[in-house]
Each structure stands twice: as C-alpha cells, then as structure tokens.
Amino acid sequence: MMRQVVMVLLVLEIMTVSAKVGTKCQDERQAVRSKGVFMPECDANGFYNKRQCYSRNRKCWCVNPETGQQLTKPNRMKINCP
C-alpha cells in the first residue's frame, strides 16, 4: 500500500514539473544549456535582461526584454541599455 502511495506521488510530481511553462527566455536557455553556445540571461520575472553579453568574445548588446530581439550591434565597450 505504501509503495503505491509513493508511486502515485511520484507520478503527480512528474506531471506537475512537466506541466510548468517557461517564458521565451527561460525556454531558450534550456534549449541551449548543453550545446556550448550563447545562453541568454533572464531576469527574475523570466524576461530577457536588457543587456546581453557573450563571455567568449566579451561583447555585449541591448535586446528587447520581451522578445529577446537584438537592438544594438555587439560591442566590447561598456554599453548602457535603456
């Protein structure tokens, strides 16, 4: 009986985790996490950080926080995004 209860709880937990929907930024991060390519930075609400940087080439650029669309050219100098 106890084993059945544990199995039911495990199945419910798996269903809950798989039902969670991420934001576009969070989904993109998950998709590239293990590929060794640029991984966007998300804020606490799941939106894109306005300033994105790629550590491999030390360049940063501004993006639209909702879509992640690049707004400025990548630049090695410090960049302030509105």
TrEMBL record:
It is found in: Secreted. Keywords: Disulfide bond, Repeat, Secreted, Signal. It comes from Araneus ventricosus (Orbweaver spider). This is Thyroglobulin type-1 domain-containing protein. Pfam families: Thyroglobulin_1. GO terms for cellular component: basement membrane; extracellular space. One of its GO terms (biological process) is cell-matrix adhesion. The keyword Signal applies.
